[in-house]
Amino acid sequence: MTQQRRIFIAGHRGMVGSAILRQLLAQGVSPAQIVTRSHADMDLTEQAQVRAFFQAERIDEVYLAAAKVGGIHANSTYPAEFIYANLMLEANVVHQAFSAGVKKLLFLGSSCIYPRLAPQPMAEDALLTGPLEPTNEPYAVAKIAGIKLCESYNRQYGASHGIDYRSVMPTNLYGPGDNYHPQNSHVLPALIRRFHEAREAGAASVTIWGTGTPKREFLYVDDMAAASIHVMNLAPEVYHAHTRPMLSHINVGTGEDLSIGELAALVAREVGYQGRIECDSSKPDGPPRKLMDVQRLQNLGWRATTSLADGIHLAYLDFLQNHRTAAAS
């Protein structure tokens, strides 16, 4: 990255986008090189606004971290909003970036793109080999479309226009800037809030959704940001030696998982809650296991560095500093 390069972070106020912003600055990128827009300034689902932005700005690289996200409850309650918003924003950003001559773009997807019963750990070539998890299928379909957008533009315009649009698929993310909404958050921030409130109230027990037996993998968001920048900056001959035109995405994770019950116990210990942990088996579990095969990324020279225990500690500090008051309201 030279001083002249301009980098657009779509979704810079979200958990992942803000982490990418922090990482770029920490790696020496000048603030003057980084371009951001809030939702109030530009609605990414509105094609005309996105077109005007890319035509006015001289963008060289795009981190497409913007997305409408949520946990099982949110995905089940708002399926139309999840598929529409994500399809529109990624189509607008990819196409208008291409139309404005942007050569490099990184699309951030999700591990939910893989079939519900994909062989574990889930390798990149498991994509489109079986049915998706019903509870988040609309979101997953939108993310699959984003991967195929990047692949299709590369196939049609890569050689003639010199574009190189890449995709990374993170496992479950958590950390600073997470959403702690009581219904619409993902499992780890939801547990942090629930155990914190239970400790404050002196509750005798905390009930978690499902049986507690499904296994999940978790990645600290600053590690995800570092991986994204690493993949973006790989030389084309290195990156494409580990991908192919119809399978261009790369998994990002730790390669380790644990059960939801074990996760709950870990969060309770960090928060200092000492009551009982009970399971409500009437609530959905989601897929029985979701572990990423991260061999391809490791072969490209990157590994996660933040342990789950350390990451939960940092996430809880962030909750106490920035989210506790809002959560209590």
From TrEMBL:
Pfam families: Epimerase. Substrate binds at residues 194, 209, 216, 285. Pathway: Nucleotide-sugar biosynthesis; GDP-L-fucose biosynthesis via de novo pathway; GDP-L-fucose from GDP-alpha-D-mannose: step 2/2. It catalyses: GDP-beta-L-fucose + NADP(+) = GDP-4-dehydro-alpha-D-rhamnose + NADPH + H(+). Residues 7-234 form the NAD-dependent epimerase/dehydratase domain. Gene3D superfamilies: NAD(P)-binding Rossmann-like Domain (3.40.50.720), UDP-galactose 4-epimerase, domain 1 (3.90.25.10). NADP(+) binds at residues 11-17, 108-111, 143, 170-173, 186. Its EC number is 1.1.1.271. The keyword Isomerase applies. It comes from the Bacteria. It is an enzyme of class 1 (oxidoreductase). GO terms for molecular function: GDP-L-fucose synthase activity; isomerase activity; NADP+ binding. One of its GO terms (biological process) is 'de novo' GDP-L-fucose biosynthetic process. Keywords: Isomerase, Multifunctional enzyme, NADP, Oxidoreductase. The record marks 110, 112 as: Important for catalytic activity. The active site is at 139 (proton donor/acceptor). Catalyzes the two-step NADP-dependent conversion of GDP-4-dehydro-6-deoxy-D-mannose to GDP-fucose, involving an epimerase and a reductase reaction. PANTHER family: GDP-L-FUCOSE SYNTHASE. Belongs to the NAD(P)-dependent epimerase/dehydratase family. Fucose synthase subfamily. This is GDP-L-fucose synthase. It comes from Rhodoferax koreensis.
